[in-house]
Amino acid sequence: MALTFANKITVCRIVAVPFLIATVLYYTPAQDYLRFVALGIFLFAVISDVVDGYVARHYRQRTKAGAVLDPVADKLLLISAFTCLYKVGDAIGGVHFPIWLVVGVISRDVILLSGAAIIRLFHGDFEVEPTIWGKATTVFQIAAVLGILLRLPWMSAVWLPTILLTALSGIDYIRKGIKIINEVPPEKARGISVYPDS
């Protein structure tokens, strides 16, 4: 089956990630224009996420590929942004991410991606609707990245709510994931081994 329009937008978002990484890592105070390039790429990715979600829902373009690619694209974008902006640190000016926030964001997304892979192993295809905690976490994480790129001096005020929402949404998704695994029929579960050599 050919990629839908929504899928193509998602792929464009994934392709944008290496360009975001490059513009941030090559940033120097003497090349301050790269900060605005990174800002433009990040905004493009955020807006494209909204657009592909709208297209998928309203034009019946929900696909298995989209269900996998969309969350992967979101996590690649945010993990890359937090990691690279932490690396350049003070060079970009203004405030910078504390290490505990970066570790929290990355840990949550790695756990969720690993959990999704495990659930697919046990349960096959599944769908978890975004929760209010998950949506709020995404909004705060995006705001944190924008604040760094825009050099907003007061953005450090959002670090604590961002890490709290990151933890709460992570716990909530883990709870839902365990519930999905526990709903696997016994006859199906008997044919699945969690040990690769058994």
List the helices and strands and how they pair.
Blueprint: H1 5-25, H2 33-58, H3 64-88, H4 99-123, H5 132-149, H6 159-182, H7 186-189
Q: Which short descriptors sum up this protein?
A:
Four Helix Bundle (Hemerythrin (Met), subunit A); mainly alpha; 198 residues
Overview of this structure, please?
- With 198 residues, the chain is mostly helical.
- It has a single domain, classed as Up-down Bundle (Four Helix Bundle (Hemerythrin (Met), subunit A)).
- It is 72% helix and 0% strand.
- It has helices at residues 5-25, 33-58, 64-88, 99-123, 132-149, 159-182, 186-189.
- The protein is globular and about 55 Å long.
- Residues 186-198 have low confidence and may be disordered.
Proportion in β-strands:
under 5%
The CATH superfamily appears as CDP-alcohol phosphotransferase transmembrane (TM) domain
What's the CATH first level?
Mainly Alpha
Mean pLDDT: 86
| Whole-number total of structural domains | 1
What is this structure, in a nutshell?
The protein has 198 residues and is mainly α. The chain has helices spanning 5-25, 33-58, 64-88, 99-123, 132-149, 159-182, 186-189.
